[in-house]
C-alpha cells in the first residue's frame, strides 16, 4: 500500500524475512506480452476512426508542454542543453540506455568520466558511487535523486543508499558536477545524480520486454500509457529474478527477486490557456528479497573458487520495501515565469539479516587475519562444528522515511544585448531512520546452522535519528555576447536529533532514553563561467564550496565536511563529434568517514574527521558517429571516456575509522582508482545492431596508505567486455541477446567489509521486445 504523504512512520515490520516468491510475478509480464500487441492494434483502429486532426493536435500539445513541464525537475535537460551549461555535465538519454539495456547502474555510469565506482555483489543492487574522490561507499556522499526528488532512504540523517532507483525502467540519467551542481543538495563536494523516470506518452503507446538467462534469470518490463487533451496516464512494471552466480557450501540460493511498479496520472489545462497548469501524481513501489551476504573469502579460497560462499552465510539475506509518492504542480502564468512545486514522501523498510561474528570475533577480523583466527575460519567453512551461540547473526532492521516540499521558480526576463535565466528554489525536508535490531545466535552442526538463542528485541540497537532542513538556492545564468556567467548560492539550515532508548527498553518507555541534538547552518556559494570559442566550442571554469552534513548524534569534535572545488574545461559539440575535457581540484578542509558495517566497522553510523585532503584529476569524454560522418547507411557510434584521480591526506593522525587507521600525510585514499576508462563501439543497420563496451578499472587500495599496494589490501584491476546483439523482425519487434563479462574475467571487486568478493561472472541473457 502506498503511504499517504504525511502519515506517521509505521510500526516496525516483521522480524522474519518474507518467503521467496520467485517466478510468480512473471505471469503478469507474460500476460503483458500478449495484451500489448492487441492494444496496439486497437490503438491503430482508434487512430483511423479519430482522424489525423486529433492526432496532430494532441502530439503538438504534448511536444509544447513537456520541455517546460519537466524543466525544473531535471538537472541537465537534454544533450543540447548539456553543451551550454558552464560546468561538467553528462546526459544519457533513453536511446543510449536501450543500446545495452543494463539493469546494473555501475555498468551505465562506468561510461561517465569523473564517476568513481566500487562493485559489491555483482548486480548493482546497492551501488557504491562517488564523484571526484568524494568517497563511493553506499553512494552517501553524492546527491541522488529521482525526477528531482531526493531518493536516498533518509538523505540527511542516514544517507547510505540501501535503496536505489531501478535503473532498468529509467528514461534518462543525468550527472552534474562542479559549481553547476549547487542547485541540488545537501551534498555538493562530489556532484548530482538524477534519474528520469518514464514520462507519460503523447499518445497510446507501450513496451513489453521479456528475457531469460543463465542462473535461472527472468527479466521483464511492461509499460503502457496515453495522453488526451486534458489528462494522461502511465502504468509500468519491471521484474527481475535470478538464482545468483555464487555457490553456497552445501547448496542453497544466492540470488534475489525484485519487483518494481510505477503509476503516473496527469491533469492539465489546455495548452492554449492564458495560464497553463498541470498536476501530476506519481506512485511507486519496489520490493526486493535477496540471499545476500557481507561474508567474503580468504585469498587462498578465492583462488580456488572465487564464487564460493561459506556455509556460515546460509542465514544471510535482505528484504526491502520502498514506497514513493510525489504530487507535482506546474504553473506557467506567462512566457517569462513558471513555478514547479513538488510534495513528496518516501518510505523504506529493510531488514538485512547477516552474520556478524564467530566466537565473538568479527567476520572482518577473521578474514583480515585468517592465520590467527584459523579456528573461527574453520567454523565459517563448516569444517568443524561449533559450540552453541558461536555464530551471531544480526537483524539489521531499519525503517526510514523522507518527506518534504520543494518549489522552484523560473524567471526569464529579457534585455537588450543580455539574457538572464533565473532560478530560485525553496525546500523543506524531514527524514528519519529508526533502528530496532538484535542478534540471534547459532551453532554450526554438520554444515548447518541451528538456532540456539533468540536475541532480545532491540538489544543491539534501539534508536531514532532524524533531521529537519530548510534549503534555499538562487542562480542566475547570464548570457552576454560570447560569455555565460552563472553565479549561485545555496543555504542549508539543518537540525539533527537522535533519541537512543537503550538496549533494555524494547517498548520505548523512555526510562533509559538519551537525547542528542546538533545543528548545522551553511552558505554554499559558487560561480561558473563559459566562453564561446566558436559556434560549437567553448571553454568553461568554475569554483564552489563543497559541503556534506555531519549527521545526527555528532559530537562537538565532529566538523561538517567542507571543501573548495575548482574546475576548468573545454567542450565541443557539432552533432557528430562531442568532446568534453575537464581538470578538477577539490581541496578539503575536513573529510568525513562514517562507521558502517559495509565499510568493515560496527555499524554505529558515527562520523570521523579525516582532516585536510586534496583530490585532483582529469576527466575526458568523446563521442563520434563515424557512419553519419561518412553518410553511410551503417551507423557506427563510437565513445571513449577516461578519468584520472589522485587523492591523499595532508596531515598525520590516528582514526578509529577502519579504512583509515593510522594516517601519515601523503597516504592515498582508499577505494579510489587512479585510472578508469571506457570504450564503446556499435554497428547499427536497419535490420540489426551490435554494441560492444569495454570498461577498465585500475586496482584500488582498500585501506589508506602509500607506496606499492599490498596484495591483501587491494582490489584487482580488470577489463570487462559486454556485448549486445539486436535483430529487428519488424519495425517495433526485436530479438536480442546480451553477454556480460564476455571474457569471463575473474577479479576481486571488493574486500570490505570482510574478505575478497568477486565481480559478476560471464552471463548470457536473451529475449524479445515489442514497442508500439
Quick recap:
By secondary structure, the protein is mainly beta.
Question: CATH homologous superfamily name?
Answer: TonB-dependent receptor, beta-barrel domain
**What is the beta-strand fraction?**
over 45%
The total count of strands amounts to: 40
Between the first and last Cα atoms, what is the distance in angstroms?
31 Å
Q: Report on the biggest sheet.
A: 22 strands, antiparallel, barrel
* Overall structural domain count: 1
Q: Share of helix among residues?
A: 10-25%
Low-confidence segments, ≥5 residues, pLDDT <50?
1-67
Which shape, going by the Cα principal axes? Answer: globular
The CATH class turns out to be Mainly Beta
Oligomer: single chain
CATH architectural grouping:
Beta Barrel
Which whole number gives the mean pLDDT? 87
Q: What is the CATH topology classification name?
A: Maltoporin, Chain A
Query: Helix/strand-derived class?
Result: mainly beta
So how many helices?
8
Radius of gyration: 26 Å
Write the topology of this structure.
Elements: H1 26-69, H2 79-82, E1 89-92, H3 94-100, H4 105-109, E2 115-117, E3 129-131, E4 143-146, E5 149-150, E6 170-177, E7 191-197, E8 205-213, E9 217-227, E10 231-242, E11 247-248, E12 256-268, E13 276-290, H5 299-304, E14 308-309, E15 317-334, E16 337-358, E17 361-362, H6 363-368, H7 374-381, E18 391-411, E19 414-415, E20 418-445, E21 448-453, E22 461-480, E23 483-500, E24 514-532, E25 537-548, E26 561-573, E27 577-590, E28 592-594, E29 607-609, E30 613-625, H8 626-629, E31 637-649, E32 653-654, E33 662-663, E34 675-684, E35 688-697, E36 718-728, E37 733-740, E38 748-750, E39 757-758, E40 763-771
Amino acid at each position: 500500500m502506498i503511504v499517504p504523504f504525511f502519515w506517521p512512520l509505521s510500526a516496525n515490520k516483521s522480524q522474519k524475512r518474507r518467503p521467496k516468491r520467485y517466478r510468480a510475478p512473471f505471469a503478469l509480464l507474460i500476460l503483458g506480452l500478449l495484451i500489448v500487441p492487441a492494444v496496439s492494434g486497437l490503438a491503430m483502429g482508434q487512430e483511423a476512426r479519430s482522424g489525423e486532426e486529433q492526432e496532430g493536435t494532441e502530439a503538438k500539445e504534448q511536444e509544447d508542454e513537456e520541455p517546460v513541464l519537466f524543466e525544473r525537475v531535471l538537472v541537465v535537460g537534454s544533450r543540447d542543453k548539456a553543451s551550454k551549461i558552464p560546468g561538467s555535465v553528462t546526459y544519457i538519454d533513453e536511446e543510449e540506455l536501450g543500446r545495452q539495456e543494463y539493469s546494473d547502474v555501475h555498468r551505465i555510469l562506468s561510461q561517465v568520466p569523473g564517476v568513481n565506482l566500487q562493485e559489491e555483489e555483482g548486480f548493482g543492487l546497492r551501488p557504491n558511487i562517488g564523484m571526484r574522490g568524494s568517497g563511493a561507499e553506499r553512494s552517501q556522499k553524492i546527491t541522488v535523486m529521482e525526477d528531482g526528488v531526493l531518493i536516498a532512504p533518509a538523505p540527511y540523517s542516514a544517507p547510505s543508499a540501501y535503496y536505489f532507483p531501478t535503473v532498468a525502467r529509467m528514461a534518462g540519467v543525468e550527472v552534474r558536477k562542479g559549481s553547476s551542481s549547487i542547485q541540488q543538495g545537501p551534498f555538493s563536494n562530489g556532484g548530482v545524480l538524477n534519474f528520469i523516470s518514464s514520462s507519460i506518452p503523447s499518445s497510446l503507446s507501450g513496451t513489453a520486454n521479456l528475457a531469460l538467462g543463465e542462473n535461472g534469470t527472468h527479466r521483464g518490463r511492461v509499460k503502457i500509457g496515453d495522453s488526451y487533451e486534458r489528462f494522461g496516464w502511465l502504468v509500468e512494471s519491471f521484474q527481475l529474478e535470478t538464482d545468483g552466480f555464487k555457490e553456497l557450501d552445501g547448496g542453497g540460493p544466492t540470488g534475489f527477486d525484485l519487483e518494481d511498479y510505477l503509476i503516473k496520472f496527469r491533469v492539465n489545462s489546455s495548452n492554449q490557456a492564458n495560464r497553463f497548469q498541470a498536476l501530476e501524481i506519481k506512485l511507486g513501489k519496489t520490493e526486493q528479497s535477496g540471499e545476500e551476504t557481507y561474508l567474503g573469502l580468504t585469498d587462498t579460497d578465492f583462488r580456488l573458487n572465487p564464487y564460493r560462499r561459506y556455509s556460515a552465510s546460509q542465514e544471510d539475506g535482505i528484504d526491502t520495501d520502498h514506497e514513493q509518492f510525489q504530487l507535482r504542480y506546474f504553473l506557467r502564468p506567462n512566457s517569462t515565469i513558471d513555478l514547479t512545486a513538488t510534495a513528496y514522501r518516501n518510505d523504506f523498510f529493510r531488514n538485512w539479516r547477516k552474520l556478524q561474528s564467530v566466537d565473538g570475533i568479527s567476520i572482518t577480523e577473521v578474514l583480515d587475519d585468517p592465520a590467527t583466527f584459523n579456528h573461527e575460519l574453520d567454523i565459517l567453512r563448516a569444517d568443524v562444528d561449533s559450540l552453541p551461540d558461536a555464530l551471531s547473526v544480526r537483524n539489521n532492521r531499519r525503517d526510514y522515511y523522507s518527506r518534504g516540499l520543494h518549489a522552484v521558480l523560473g524567471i526569464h526576463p529579457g534585455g537588450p544585448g543580455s539574457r538572464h535565466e533565473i532560478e530560485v528554489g525553496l525546500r523543506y525536508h524531514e527524514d528519519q531512520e529508526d533502528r530496532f535490531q538484535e542478534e540471534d545466535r547459532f551453532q554450526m552442526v554438520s554444515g548447518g546452522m541451528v538456532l540456539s538463542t533468540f536475541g532480545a528485541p532491540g538489544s543491539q540497537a534501539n534508536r531514532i535519528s532524524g533531521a529537519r532542513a530548510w534549503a534555499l538556492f538562487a542562480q542566475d545564468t547570464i548570457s552576454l555576447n560570447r560569455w555565460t556567467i552563472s553565479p549561485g548560492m545555496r543555504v542549508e539550515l539543518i537540525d539533527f536529533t537522535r533519541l537512543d532508548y537503550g538496549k533494555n527498553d524494547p517498548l520505548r518507555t523512555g526510562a533509559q532514553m538519551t537525547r542528542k541534538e546538533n545543528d548545522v547552518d551553511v552558505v554554499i556559494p559558487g560561480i561558473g563561467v563559459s566562453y564561446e570559442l566558436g559556434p560549437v566550442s567553448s571553454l568553461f571554469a568554475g569554483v564552489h564550496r563543497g559541503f556534506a552534513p555531519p549527521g545526527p548524534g555528532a559530537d562537538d569534535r565532529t566538523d561538517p565536511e567542507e571543501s573548495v572545488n575548482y574546475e576548468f574545461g573545454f567542450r565541443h559539440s557539432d552533432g557528430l563529434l562531442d568532446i568534453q575535457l575537464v581538470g578538477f581540484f577539490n581541496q578539503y578542509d575536513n573529510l568525513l568517514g562514517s562507521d558502517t558495517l559495509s565499510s568493515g566497522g560496527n555499524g554505529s553510523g558515527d562520523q570521523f574527521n579525516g582532516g585536510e585532503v586534496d583530490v585532483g584529476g582529469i576527466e575526458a569524454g568523446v563521442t563520434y558517429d563515424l557512419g553519419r560522418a561518412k553518410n553511410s547507411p551503417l551507423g557506427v557510434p563510437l565513445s571513449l571516456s577516461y578519468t584520472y584521480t589522485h587523492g591523499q591526506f595532508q596531515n598525520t593522525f590516528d582514526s578509529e575509522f577502519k579504512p583509515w587507521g593510522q594516517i601519515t600525510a601523503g597516504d592515498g585514499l582508499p577505494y579510489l582508482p587512479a585510472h578508469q576508462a571506457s570504450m564503446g563501439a556499435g554497428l547499427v543497420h536497419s535490420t540489426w545492431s551490435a554494441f560492444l563496451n569495454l570498461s577498465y578499472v585500475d586496482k584500488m587500495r582498500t585501506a589508506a596508505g602509500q607506496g606499492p599496494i599490498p596484495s591483501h589490501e587491494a582490489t584487482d584491476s580488470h577489463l570487462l567486455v559486454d556485448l549486445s546483439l539486436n535483430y529487428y523482425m519488424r519495425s517495433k519487434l526485436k530479438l536480442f541477446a546480451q553477454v556480460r563479462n564476455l571474457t569471463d574475467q575473474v577479479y576481486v571487486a571488493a574486500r570490505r567489509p570482510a574478505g575478497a568478493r568477486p565481480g559478476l561472472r560471464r552471463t548470457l541473457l536473451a529475449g524479445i521486445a515489442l514497442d508500439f
